[in-house]
Amino acid sequence: MYCTEIIPQLQKNENKVINSKHIAIGIYLFSIGLFKKVFISDYLAQWADNGFSANELTFIEAWLTSLSYTFQLYFDFSGYTDMAIGSALFFNIKLPLNFNSPYKSINIQEFWRRWHITLGRFLRDHIYIPLGGNRLSKSRTMINVLITFLICGLWHGAGWTFIVWGLLHGFGMVIFRLWKTFNINIPKALAWFITFNFINIAWVFFRATDFKEAIKVLKGMFGMNGIVLPMAFINKLGFLENYNIKFGGFLANIQGNLMTVIFVLSILFVSLWFRNSNEMAKTFKPNILNIIFIGCIFALAFLRLSSTSEFLYFKF
Amino acid sequence: MSYFKVITYTNWLKGFGIFVCFFLIIVSFLNYFIDSVGIFHMNKSLVFAAQALIRGQIVAGFRNIDERQFQQLIIENDKRKINTIVLGSSRSLEIRERSIKNIFKSENDINFFNHSVSGASIEDYIAIVGLYKKVRGYIPKRIIIGLDPWVFNKNSGQNRWKSIEKFYNMLIEEIYDKKLESPKTLSLHKTKYAQLINWDYTIANIESLFVPSKRNRFHIVNSIDIDESLRAPDGSNYYPYKIRYKSDDIVQREAKNYTNPPVYSLENFFELTNIKIFEDFIQFLKKHNVEVILFLPPYHPLSYEILINKNEYKIIEEVEKYLKNYAANHNIKLLGSYNPKTYNLQSIHFYDGMHWRDTAAKILFEAKP
Q1: What pLDDT, on a 0 to 100 scale, did the predictor assign at position A315?
Q2: Contacting residues of A for B257, CB less than 8 Å apart
Q3: Assign residue B85 a region: left if phi > 0, alpha if psi is -120 to 50, beta otherwise?
Q4: Where are the domains of chain A?
């Protein structure tokens, strides 16, 4: 964010008083952010960490590993952002929106308008536009997009996996721009499916410590290490054994169980169908129901803090 | 009263503060009074279990207990003169009286007890010997010390010994003839009362109320052939069938998973620490004419192979080398090896990556590597 957004707020005299409305909304956002971090992100972290550090992953394990990380990152980062926005509100400072339900995006361009909005804005203003933006030829615009995303990757970390992640998004953006010129409409559900899976696969490179680790997860996701289904299905689906599908500990390598599947799918549902915390904060009403709701969320998150980890996105 | 009625923001903030405080107070009361593990109150069922073991009975129904407190109760209540004990972690909990009698066949007066506790650290060994010295007035004449590599890792994260810290401090004063500052972790009271608002303890307490299988329901059984977690009269452990009869396929998979970071208590293990306190403790025991035997519990072949090929864990080889040298230089008997190949142990001799089965005991305590 820019200092021009903050300094004037600090200088305003009316911001130097205690504003109970801002404190209440700040607590509301802070509590939701803390809850996202300690209850959702940290739960997902165990399966993501186990998966990325496992020696080998089967099909279901690999998908749950990548999805766990995709949502871990989202809830960790958006939780942190909610807490930052909420804390700033205690002091009457309004920080810009940084997240707007990015996984609801139906194309990669929309994703970057919803994900880490302040970084996207910074890269646009200080890299993309100075390079010429879209004011030059089409091919030059594409190169500018690629350079911007390459720098975006490097901004996250000085490693080849970050560069690949940035370039993947850059190429995704270029392909989307080219696609737009054909004016072909595809169903929204299909557009979402393609976008979400592209983002999910790209996050594998973002999370992996090296290419070997990334390829291990991707090999599993593309079924190259076989498929293992839960033992409970063997009676009805036992014939699949003829097709090299095994039955047994289907999440053994990520130390998961049926709860892992339910949890990850529930989080996908919440990410797609629920309003985000900023939208909820806009309609916040100081009533008893909200005291109970936020009070429970805050107290539970406070209890859970006794066994939590540091913020994933802090280093970025 | 309408839950939807809009109130002033000031009143909302007051209501929020009161609600959160009330919530946390209720949780604290819940944890204090349910206290399923017996952190705040002496657990009567634990006393029952300790007394039953001392009477020579097999006790079933172990779930989640303060193992240090349990050992304290055993030592305090046992009127027998125990002359051979095992100190170690869960990796030494399968050392049984019959294995020891097998080593010392010529002796007829062996009174044995296994005092191993999960995740044991050097402080646990000292505290348990301290308990014998201070409560019973003697030190058993033979002590078998199960030494896991993490005993020499100051970053092992093990601080459960704090529940018997008093006895650790007592023995330390005697070893050094002065008060030694105990390693810096949370003080006993802070650790204890932090459990009042601890998430995991709250869940454990709620589970103990509503899920019968999560309760410590100690009962006496007549045989070890029972599908429960058991303690034999010699203090050794028997796992429930799910673990006891685990298939080798699953064991091998778990053994591989075991090496996924973080590896139990082996993280940030950059150098051997606790050497001085370990050597001083052994010298103290020898000064009191105690026969010390060191035991190195083996790892599963797959786990060991992976661990020693990773830079961050290969230090376990260094630990073994140090202990072998130390034992040789001080004329101390050493049994076992972290390396399963030393005794030709196979996957079938393990429950998982780091716990050996009864079938391994025969090899470990009879064979000469």
Answers
A1: 44
A2: 50, 54, 252-253, 255
A3: beta
A4: 1-99+258-316, 101-225
